Structures are given as structure tokens and as C-alpha cells.
Amino acid sequence: MTTTTNTTSSTSSVVTSATQSLLTSLNTGSGVDTASLVTSLVQAQFAQKTAALTAKADTLTTQVSAASTLKSTMSNFSAALQSLVKGGTLTTQPVSSNGNALAVSALPGAKLSGLSRSISVDQLASAQSARTTTAISDRTNKFATGTFTLSFGQATYSADGSKMDSFNDDLDGDGNVDRSLTIDLDNASLDDIAAAINAKKAGVTATIITDGKGGSFLSLKGQTGTDQAFKLTATTDDDGTLAQFNVDPNATGTSLTGGAANAKLTVDGIDVERATNSIADLIDGVKLDLKQVTTGAVALSSSSPTAALKQAVTDFVDTYNLTIAQVTEQTNAKTGNLKSDPAARALLTSLQGLSTKSLTSSAAAGEPNSLAAIGVRTNRDGTLTIDATALDRALAETPDSVEAMFAYSSIGINGLSAKLDSIVTTATSVIFGLGASVSRYTAQQSTIEAAQAALSDQSEQMTTRLTQQFASMNSKISAYKSTQSFLDNQIKAWNQGNN
């Protein structure tokens, strides 16, 4: 559409110019270049409005770009800091003297300063597992109809661990089975049996293992812990084929390959048991992963991330200075693109107060709880610098307080990351932050575009009107010249006749 309009306008201009030249060469019309005159008159009429709208449009484009850039900068700043504090490198970590046997890791929100424990791993938690002893040649052959009962409890095992000596499914002693369920089978294959057991999602996993010689076996495995022993018994068996899969004290078609047992540990001289080898409820803030039985005690201690915290403060100050420089430039009272933007100015104020803001609510009296208190100083231009001596002293004397400032807060209240995130949330809000500013500027751009379109229409209308008026004038002047020419010729004829 634009191409057609431009082409039409260009063609019209060429025709007008040619017509004007012809009229001039024939000495008809006024002799005035009306096309140029009309263009000049129209431009003079609308030049001021056009320039004003163009300037406003350019300003709005710059403001949209500036506000969007600040939004992106702040979001990236907050995301980078949050990623750092979530990474765990800025928190005190537990240390095991024998990680191959007992691995340790910090739990979220852990305070591990001064950790000291002695732990021996006496037994790993294990799961009961069983297998069929006779291979089935065709795992897809349909042969089994009936019902299994799967129940859970505690079991005792033979000395070699291959058989179940007894099973107790009434652990609370009320005379009822604690946990059991039924598995119905109708003309099922070995694959169907495994699928039916797995479909119950009861904590026993069935797997088909093929020996490579044409035979397939059913393998069953439960969960770790003494109370997770299981018994599988064919309670209805139409043709006697299900009993070969029984796992109970009377089983003849299966053998055990592992028994259910708790992990056993000695913690500072106290014997404890847990159902799994991954333990998070024994030592506050520490997750234990048992790998192997130990021959002696494993020492647990903690390591403070002093170097990482010092680097984090340095990285934060560097990033802050780059950010505050952008915000200051955009809000400069004379040259800033966002000098009158309330959201941008509010962001500047919030950032300027960040170094003195209280970052933790649990700091003891006299302990630092702000960046300024650990040696982060504010310069006259708003940027930050680090007093290395003060920071080293804070890390040496109150490492827990410094660590708390850089700790991750899952509820977004305490810590530098939470405070910065709060500033960013407000600054980028689509209701009253930079997001709202972008929307407002964009809406104003639409208004300017509409005004420019209306002005263009008015310009075209004036061009048409003046062109018509000058055409009418040229027509009348041509008529006047024609009459003048006739009279001149008539007078000349009269004069010649008198001679």
C-alpha cells in the first residue's frame, strides 16, 4: 500500500512539473511555479507541528528503550545474586573425615558453624529382594490366573539370607495386618505379572531378567528398612501356577537375594537406626549419605567459606557500581532520558539506601547486619568501595553474621538477595514501576502516531485545495491573456486599415 501511494505521488509530481513547464513555455497561465509554491505553503503551515511531533516521538522511543534496559539490568543483577546464594558456596559446609564411607551435605537454611560430631557406620540399610529359581522360556505366554496378596512388615532370615524364616505383618500388635493389598491376574504372562505388581506402586518393584539362554526370571525388590520386608502369597490359584512366585516362609519357587534391614550408626556414643542410607533428621542442618560400613569413627566438622564470602562482596560491589552508573545516567536532572520518570527515580533512591539497609533480623546486638557494617562504603557519586581491613575483621570476628547476609531466604525476607529482589520487584512492576513506564510511553507513542497521521491528512487536504485554487487562477489568467491577445490583434488590424 505504501509503495502504491509513493508511486502515485511521484507520478503526480512529474505530471504537475511537466504541465507547469508547458504552460510557461507557451506563455499561458500566470507563469508562476504553482507546484513549488503549494509545497512551500503547505510545509510552512505544518512545519512547526510536524517538528514538534517528530521530536516527541523520538523522545518517547528513547524513553521506552531506557526504561526497558533498566528493567533488564535490574532483573539480571537480582538473578545473578540469587543464583550465587542458592549455589551453597557462601554457606558453611559440613566436612567428613571419610567421605568415601560417610558423605555429608548442608540442608537449606543450615547453620553449621562449630559443627563437631563423631559417627560410626555399623550397618547399611538394605532392601529385601527375591528372584524366581526356575526360568520361564516364554515370558509372553499367558498361563497365570488368580490373586496375590502383598503384605509388609518385619522378617527374619536364614543364616545365609536365602530364605525367610518368619514374617510379622502385625507390628502394632492389634491382631490385624498393618499393610496389605491384592493383585488380581487373569490369564497373565510373566510380563503381565510384573506389570500388575508395579501398577500398585506399593514399594515393591518387579523386573524381568533374561539370562541370554532363552530363560526369563522374575526379580522383586522392596524398599530399605526393617519394616519394609514384604511377603507375596498366592491366595487364589486356579491351576497352581502362581505359587511358584510366592515370597514367604513356605516359598519353594523363589529365593532371597537380600534382606530388609535398618542402617545402624553410633553418634557420639549413642546407637541409632534409620530406615534409609540417606538421613536428614539426625544432625541439624546436615544430610548424611551412608556409603559403607566404617572400621572406626568418622569426624564431622564444618568449613567456613571466608574466601568465597570475600569474593562475593567484591563481585556484588562491582556489579552494583555498573548498575548504579546506568540508573544515575538515565535519571540525571539535565541530560537523563528518564529524569522525570518516577519509577526510575524511586529505583535510584532504593539502590542508594541498600548498603545501609538491615539485611538480617536475627543478628545479635553488636553484630553487623548491613553491608556498611562490614566495610562497604558509599562514595559521594553513589558508587561503593570496600574497606578491606574492615571486611577482613568482620569475616574473622563475626563470620556467621556475614554469612547470614548472603544466605538464601526461601520466604524472601532476610539476606541481601531478598532485599535486592524486593527492590527489583517494585522497580519492574507493571503497575507502578518501570513496567508501567514502558506501557505509558508506548501508549503515548500510539497517540503521537495518530496525531502524525492526522497532520498528514490535513497536509494532503491543504495541498489539494491550494492546487485546485491555483489551477483555477491559471485558467482565468489564460482566458484573460487570450482576450488580451485578441484585442491586441484587433487594434493592430484597425491601425493598419487606417493607414
Strand content: 15-25%
What's the N-to-C terminus distance?
A: 69 Å
Strand order of the largest sheet: 1-16-3-12-13
Mean pLDDT: 88
Query: Which class of secondary structure composition applies to the elements?
Result: alpha+beta
Domain tally: 3
Sketch the topology as an H/E string, one letter per element.
Answer: HHEEEEEEEHEEEEEEEEEHHEEHHHH
Give the biggest sheet.
5 strands, antiparallel
What does the overall shape look like?
Answer: elongated
| Count of DSSP H/I helices | 9
Features:
3 domains, elongated, 18 strands, 9 helices, alpha+beta, 499 residues
Helix-strand layout with pairing:
Elements (H helix, E strand, L loop, with lengths): L1 H24 L8 H53 L6 E4 L5 E5 L10 E7 L3 E6 L11 E14 L6 E5 L10 E10 L1 H10 L5 E6 L5 E9 L4 E9 L16 E5 L4 E5 L2 E5 L3 E6 L2 E5 L7 E6 L2 H25 L11 H11 L23 E3 L5 E3 L1 H10 L1 H7 L10 H12 L6 H65 L1
Antiparallel strand pairs: 1-16, 2-15, 3-12, 3-16, 4-9, 4-11, 5-6, 5-7, 5-10, 8-9, 12-13, 14-15, 17-18
Task: Summarize the structure in words.
The chain is built from nine helices and 18 strands. It is α+β, with helices and mostly antiparallel strands. It has three domains: 158 residues, no CATH class; 72 residues, no CATH class; 135 residues, no CATH class. It has a five-stranded antiparallel sheet, with no helix packed on it. The protein has a four-stranded antiparallel sheet with strand order 8-9-4-11. A hairpin with a 6-residue loop joins strand 5 and strand 6. Helix 2 packs antiparallel against helix 8 and helix 4 packs antiparallel against helix 5. The chain is elongated and about 160 Å long. 28% of the residues are buried.
